[in-house]
Amino acid sequence: MKFVTEYRDQQAAEKLSQTIRKKVTRPWMIMEICGGQTHTIVKSGLEDLLPREVTLVHGPGCPVCVTPIELIDKAVAIAERSDVIFCSFGDMLRVPGSSQSLFDAKAAGGDVRVVYSPLDALKLAKANPARQVVFFAVGFETTAPANAMAAWQADHDNVENFSLLISHVLVPPAMEAILSSENCRVQGFLAAGHVCTIMGYEEYFPLAERYKVPIVVTGFEPLDILEGILMTVTQLEDGRHEVENQYSRAVRREGNRPAQERIAEVFEVTQRQWSGLGEIPASGLRLRERFQKLDADLRFPSSEEPARESPECISGLILQGIKKPHECAAFGTKCTPENPLGAPMVSSEGACAAYYHYGRRQKQESDHARLPVAQSF
Amino acid sequence: MADGKNKKVITLDCPLPRVSEDRVLLAHGGGGRLTHQLIEKIFLPAFANPLLEQRHDGAVLPINGSCLAFTTDSFVVRPLIFPGGNIGDLAVNGTVNDLAMCGAHPLYLSAGFILEEGLAMETLQTVVASMQKAASRANVQLVTGDTKVVDKGKGDGIFVNTSGIGLIESNVKGTIGPASVQVGDAVIVSGDLGRHGVAILSVREGLEFESPILSDTASIWPAVEALLNAEIDVHCLRDLTRGGLATTLNEIASDRGVCIRLEETLIPVEETVQGACEILGLDPLYIANEGRFAAFVPSAQTEAALQVLRKVAVSEGAVAVGKVEESPRGLVVMQSRIGGNRVVDMLSGEQLPRIC
Questions:
Q1: Residue B64 domain flag
Q2: For A234-259, how does the pLDDT look when each residue is reduced to its tens digit (9 = 90+)?
Q3: A31, A198, A293, B349: which has the fewest Cβ within 10 Å?
């Protein structure tokens, strides 16, 4: 398939793998920011192609993993209302709240629907004027323009039964939070290509400079990621810390200006709670005053019940690359993909789920395995 | 924040939820792990008997010297009518195929209809006409049936259950089923994967393609019959319906305690189907097929089996995609296009489109 198969070519992958091997002289820990990149790494078994010295850690760029439990609880409470059609991207449905997931709410009679776009939710609102339609607007800068567009359109068309439950987060503040933590082990970043498609990569220059860390804007196909790793390793070996763009076929330095303008028109920057990372200042988006009538958090009253939390899930340490999933006491025992204690065990690109699957293989193949993931076991 | 004294260790707050086990979730019907849990915890303990415990697509019943296969399946699909077929085709072909997977010649079907009040009679007629055509094509007779009507809002137009009886031919050598799978067997799939699921999803999501993706719904008995007539020593046959190739192979790997090793480059997926999967964020390995099956045959007979299958219309795209190995036990492992390895796991529930 054009624009896909050429980025999954085995010979080219092998060549990049060889070049990385030649380049590496010592251990490096590189974090891929985006859940989509983690997905590709897991799905293509890409770590098998890396030398032992390179360790990939899965970053916080998975909206499923970082949406705080309070908001999942709020989503479930709204979804349970009989007057509501609750719309969400598919993989949010399985994320556990304090006591229930959206799947549970659906099983209990809630009208929960999977949509591919917030504009589909807006269409639903127009088609069902007697019901409240709520869209779960989670995600990073990548999903922000479409969500902003839905809010703008709803305002423009005076759609009164549409609202957004917002948990929008921003990548650079999360990277800063990770880098400024004193137990940070990450030495280089693969920045999230699609986030940069929207935002460009000018915001990363101060980060690279301040923390002396290479940041390579990277795409999502296996060859993109191998090339991103090569560029990062080359910088690390050369002692450089620059911002580079591997994903130049999609990303421009300044990003997508019209999309940025739409985001800025609808949203303003605010502090946000991150699941596992805690509260990070200026790390999220909320609706500007003009659009606040579309805020589901204000439209639907909150319950008094506090979110139930436990120290048992260590997803915060995992999302920062400080601990590996198998170092968690609950890993594979109390916490499995069927009974996830935290979001990273939920979907196939979640770091814990990825380790769960590889770990099982590693255990059985211990005699002859050459699994880079397994090195850290 | 860069200077040392402002550094902080980020504190953690992480959820410890109680996972609800008091209700049936949609995922319990998705064919993945939760479906298996339902069977293991609720159905098997209640109904346990040696025939049920074979856990095949149908039960094989020895009666007066001959062997009958008996199976049942219920069909719920939205939309009822989709590119390449409708719920009627599925209801006949699905049960015919379950019989075929036991190596049985499909003979007789029953049909139970649950209709929702208000259903357009024209829709029912279309579905019934398709059932008649599919039955005639598969050379089976629909010999008994039942109809119930439920209140509007209590059904999804039409639900159909079909049960079927087939005769296991005398040329079947051993038992065809997961228990006969052996280390060294080749894994053959009868054609390209993912058409049915993508045909359905593309209607639901309003996707349009230059040439529409049609469901692959069809009777696969002709392909099985050809294998048996050619005296291929077929060890196991499984149709690749709900949960797709990945789920089916996981079931077999786990039941038999073997490893099934696949090569991604060998797995046939049409470009349009692959493209739709890229857009929808889905993996064709997990997508339902309604006219495809996997056959486990001794590796020495791989070529012979492929030649036989490729002469039959419904399996003309047959290819060998992997083999059965001893370890790692219970897992399906795939060498990816770029040469890495990954575990092809069983899904917990339905495949969900990803955000990013």
A1: yes
A2: 999 999 999 999 999 999 999 999 99
A3: A293
Q: Per mean pLDDT, which of A53-67, B61-75, B120-134 is the most reliable?
A: B120-134
Please indicate whether, in this complex, the C-beta atoms of A307 and B17 are within 8 angstroms of each other: no
CA dihedral (A262, A264, A265, A268) positive or negative: positive
> For residue A254, with 0-12 CB atoms within 10 Å meaning exposed, 13-18 middle and 19 or more buried, which class applies?
exposed
Give tens-digit pLDDT for B211-247. 789 999 999 999 999 999 999 999 999 999 988 999 9
Q: In whole angstroms, what is the distance from residue B200 CA to residue B219 CA?
A: 19
Mean pLDDT of A313-336: 82
Residue-wise pLDDT for A95-116, tens only, equals 888 888 898 899 889 999 988 8
Q: Which of B210, B244, B355, B279 is nearest to A192 (CA)?
A: B355
Distance from CA of B230 to the nearest CA of A (A): 37
Mutate to test the interface with B, among A82, A212, A348 (most CBs of B within 10 A): A348
B155 and B183 inside one domain? no
Please identify, among B116, B142, B168, the residue that sits at the C-terminal boundary of a domain.
B168
Cβ–Cβ pairs < 8 A, chains A and B? 223
Pair (B304, B325) in one structural domain:
yes
Which chain A residue has the Cα nearest residue B3? A180
Please say if the pLDDT value at position A231 is more than 90. yes
Of B137, B168, B199, the residue at which a domain comes to its end is B168
- Closest-approach residue (CA) in chain B for A5: B337
pLDDT tens for B264-293 read 999 999 999 998 888 887 899 999 999 999
User: How many independent structural domains does chain B possess?
Assistant: 2
Mark whether B218 and B193 lie in a shared domain: yes
Same domain, B152 and B248: no
**Of A278, A315, A371, which has the smallest distance from its Cβ to B11's Cβ?**
A278
Whether B105 and B182 share a structural domain: no
- Chain A 156-185, residues with CB within 8 Å of chain B CB atoms: 176-178, 180-183
Tokens 């209709």 belong to residue: B115
Residue B99 sits in the same domain as residue B151? yes
Packing angle between helix A118-127 and helix A144-156, nearest 10 degrees?
A: 20
Tell me, yes or no, if A207 comes closer than 8 A to chain B by beta carbon. no
Residues B205 and B301 grouped into a single domain:
yes
- Angle between the B87-100 and B121-138 helix axes, to the nearest 10 degrees? 30
Give the structural domain span for B303: 178-343
Q: Which residue of B has its CA nearest to A179?
A: B2
Q: Which of A39, A116, A361 sits opposite B328 (nearest CB)?
A: A361
Within 13 Å and on the Cβ side, how many CA atoms surround A180?
Answer: 19
- Contact (CB<8Å) A63/B278: no
Decide if B53 is inside a domain.
Answer: no
Cα A138 to chain center, whole Å? 10
Q: Tokens representing B20?
A: 């609800």
CA distance, residue B257 to nearest chain A CA (Å): 12
